[in-house]
Every structure is written in C-alpha cells, then in structure tokens.
Amino acid sequence: MKPEELAKLTAYLRKTFNNPGLSVRARPQKKDSGEVYLGEDFLGVIFRDEEDGELSYNFSMAILEFDLEE
Question: What separation in angstroms does the CA of 52 have from each of 33, 34, 35, 55, 60?
Fold first, then answer.
C-alpha cells in the first residue's frame, strides 16, 4: 500500500475507534496489505481488495484463547 493509503486508513481507524494509538504500517515485501498496531502491539492485517472497479478493505484479527484470560 502507498503511504497516503496507510495514512487514510490510520486516520479512519483512529476516528472510528476513538483511539489515537492505532496505526497502519506497511508490510515488508507485500503491496496488497498493511499491519494494524495499537502502540507497538500487533493487532492484525488489513487487506486491500479491488474488484470490479470497487475498492474495499478487509481487516483480519486473530484472538488467541490466552488473550481472553484475565
């Protein structure tokens, strides 16, 4: 993803979740996706999907069982 696209996604996620700690960063050697972070904690991957002239993004986040334990 281009830097402008990463910045737009970062702004969107920060506004949507009311959290300035969120960021979308480039993935090494991947141009179709970015990594989503909360501070320095990796949350998941956001994929760019362009099909039939329409652009959308899909966010995938794995939640491990031990993360649910308090």
Answer: 19, 22, 25, 8, 22
Per-block average pLDDT, block size 10, for the chain (70 residues)? 96 98 95 96 95 94 89
Cα–Cα distance measured from residue 27 to residue 30, given in angstroms and rounded to the nearest whole number? 5
- Of 27, 32, 24, 26, whose CA–CA distance to 50 is shortest? 32
Question: How far is CA 4 from each of CA 10, 23, 66, rounded to the nearest angstrom?
Answer: 10, 13, 35
**Residue 20 burial (CB < 10 Å; 0-12/13-18/19+)?**
exposed
Q: What does pTM read for this prediction?
A: 0.89
The single-letter DSSP state of residue 67 is: H
- Compute the Cα dihedral for 21, 46, 9, 31 and give only its sign: positive
